[in-house]
Sequence to fold (382 residues):
Amino acid sequence: MENSRLMQSMPRTPKFEEEKKTDKDKEKEEKERNGKKTELARAQNKKAQEKDMPRFKQGENQIDTATETYELTSELGQGSFGAVFGVTRKSDKRHFAMKCESVNMKRAILPHEAGVLLALNHLKSPHFLEMVDHGIVNNRFLFVVLKLVGMNLWDMRAHLPDKKYTLTTTLRIAEQTLAGLRDLHRVGFLHRDIKPPNFAIGREEDDTYHTVFLLDFGLCRKIAMKGKDLRTPRKECAFRGTTRYAALAAHDNKEQSRKDDIESWWYMIAEMIVFDIPWKQFRGTDRDNVRGMKWRLRADETYFKFLFRKCCYEQMSAILLYLDQLSYSSIPDYDFVYHHLQAAAIVNNCSAKSPPDWDPKSQHYKGPIYKEREPYIVKSLE
Ligand SMILES: Nc1ncnc2c1ncn2[C@@H]1O[C@H](COP(=O)(O)OP(=O)(O)OP(=O)(O)O)[C@@H](O)[C@H]1O
Fold:
């Protein structure tokens, strides 16, 4: 005690202050340098996209690949790394989605994504899209052709009359997205960018209108290898993900693991339940503030209770408490999480028969139902 008081009263030497200032300056300079690098890479990527990508809006309406001709019919999405188009395969007039990426991107993402999709296509899970074609066009852009799905969960919410999902639909979404993540983890991948735009509903035409699909495997990381259970975590990693839904491990530049995908999933579902998640107003660059609020949620029970005052306090707090106990190597108990979702549905009188909000005319729910102790099923083994 005496010692610490003594230390506090001691004047800091100019040298100490100088060193501290230099460290801070260095950090600031490093941040500025990284910021400039990111900006430069972004500008280069944008230029490459403008030059190489299908120019649908300028009248380019047909893509000839090595084996097929596709007619471009719409633009379904524009991402930071590329674009997704609606296409019709000329040979059989079937509709698909074509995701494209310029060959001149600073870092190619699509070949990696195609690899993940290929692995997932061996799995018997209703939550992944079949990849029907992939390749390169005239050394201009890379592409993958995927089964077409409907609106993503972000856009869908904005289209609903109240711009909100009901609790029944939220819990159905929670159950299906949890099953999708469980299946992805089982093939040894982490998603690392769980957010509503990366899930989409199916299409009436395919009888998958009530199914939720997982999209965008560009940030996936393989964590389990053949003959090795788990990759050794790196000491420090660059931030990956989307600030609003990022797990604390991502905020702390730590190696992410299965539990962190589920933590991101928790933020996504919490947002659907409470509508206004407390860190909603912060931008992607405000990572420190968002991290602080995610910590407050854990430390301040009154705040947590207030947030879930309308419903699901017990279940959501039990799930988060459980997730926070897991470590890098833990395999989350998805069934345990599901039990809490089931409990929330029972306590809140959610009908198991109700169709999802986007299909109010339907008589009943016809989407996939979470199966406990679901065995790992590879298609070829059936
Ligand atoms: N198979 C598909 N069918 C219909 N729409 C799709 C399909 N795949 C993607 N989309 C639409 O395109 C959007 C962007 O897709 P995706 O996230 O795969 O691309 P991205 O370039 O990685 O995007 P971002 O950089 O924003 O993450 C999705 O939110 C969805 O609305």
Summary: The chain has a mean pLDDT of 89. The pocket of adenosine-5'-triphosphate is lined by residues 76-77, 79-82, 84, 97, 99, 129, 146, 148-149, 152, 197-198, 200, 215-216, 218 (CB under 6 Å).
